[in-house]
Amino acid sequence: MRIHHLRNATFVIESGEKYLLIDPMLSGVGELPPFAYVRHKMKKNPLVPLPENASHILAKVTHCLITHSQKWGIELLSHTDHLDKAGKNYLQKKSIPVVSLSEDASYLRKNNLDVEVELKYWDSTPFLGGDITAIPARHGHGWMHRFMANGAGYFLRLPDEPSLYISGDTVLTEEVKKALKELSPDITVVAAGNASLDMGGEILMSMDEIMEFIRLSPGKVIANHLEALNHCPITREELKSELIKNTLLDKVYIPLDGEVLDISKQE
């Protein structure tokens, strides 16, 4: 398995001839509005461009997994850092089959996307010769999560590959812990940007939660959702420093945009 990290939560899983695109945010720098105006420095998103190798790997994509996209069908509440207009246009133009939560399927179809697989929480569904399971994700602490998108993580098992748990945009919950313990993924992916909006609390894991998630993960961890959005304050260097303090650095990949990770089943 190869993981092609593009930017933020957007990456591609390469397995044989299959290329699975996760959460396509494909806009150019500054084409999206700020996600916070007061609590964080007001800058348009994304803050950084796609890497130079993005077009090469995007040309190979065969499937797309979308962890979350909208709430109540209201466009203003759509999560463009996981599916933006450029991402929709790409999926439409290429007729890429999409996997999503069943709660998102009608919205995605209204946007002319080809939803091939609809998932229910905790139901294992056949996929590409293996299976995929949607794990509940809670996008924030307190009341704020009620206004966030219908979210999921995905536990993915492909033939002759390490199992992979993409936790998605979530804080650390008992269900996330259950997935780590009972599914025992070989590789996990954590959204480590510690995002927050102008109102409410954190909508991604705090640094302490990130450290606990990493400790609970059976195998290696890939940290993403970093240095691409104005409401995500944690930097790669800050995360690395905290990992060193907690003697966890050897367990974690912090890929740069455009970096490719080669992961064997034994890791």
How do you describe this structure in short?
This protein is an alpha/beta fold and 267 residues long. It is built from 6 helices and 14 strands. The protein has one domain (2-257): Ribonuclease Z/Hydroxyacylglutathione hydrolase-like (Metallo-beta-lactamase, Chain A).
What does this structure look like?
This protein is of the alpha/beta class and 267 residues long. It has a single domain (2-257), classed as Ribonuclease Z/Hydroxyacylglutathione hydrolase-like (Metallo-beta-lactamase, Chain A). The protein has 6 helices and 14 strands. The strands form 2 sheets. Strands 6-5-4-3-2-1-14 form a 7-stranded mixed sheet. A 7-stranded mixed sheet has the order 7-8-9-10-11-12-13, with helices on one face. A hairpin with a 2-residue loop joins strand 2 (10-15) and strand 3 (18-22). The longest helix has 10 residues, at 85-94. The protein starts with a strand and ends in a 5-residue tail after the last strand. 46% of the residues are buried. The mean pLDDT is 92.
Write the layout of secondary structure elements.
Layout: E1 2-7, E2 10-15, E3 18-22, H1 54-58, E4 63-65, H2 85-94, E5 97-101, H3 102-110, E6 114-119, E7 124-127, E8 130-136, E9 152-157, E10 164-166, H4 174-183, E11 187-191, H5 207-216, E12 220-224, H6 236-245, E13 252-253, E14 260-262
Parallel strand pairs: 3-4, 4-5, 5-6, 10-11, 11-12, 12-13
Antiparallel strand pairs: 1-2, 1-14, 2-3, 7-8, 8-9, 9-10
Number of domains: 1
Helix tally equals 6
The radius of gyration over CA amounts to 17 Å
At the third CATH level, what is the topology name?
Answer: Metallo-beta-lactamase, Chain A
Q: How would you sum up the global shape?
A: globular
Arithmetic mean pLDDT:
92
pLDDT below 50 for ≥5 consecutive residues: which ranges? none
Main structural class: alpha/beta
Q: What is the number of beta strands?
A: 14
Helix content: 10-25%
Biggest β-sheet: strands ordered side by side in the sheet: 6-5-4-3-2-1-14
- Give me the CATH architecture, please: 4-Layer Sandwich
The main sheet comes to: 7 strands, mixed
CATH homologous superfamily classification: Ribonuclease Z/Hydroxyacylglutathione hydrolase-like
Could you tell me how far the N terminus lies from the C terminus, measured between alpha carbons in angstroms?
Answer: 11 Å
Under the CATH scheme, which class? Alpha Beta
Strand content: 15-25%
Output the helix-strand order.
EEEHEHEHEEEEEHEHEHEE
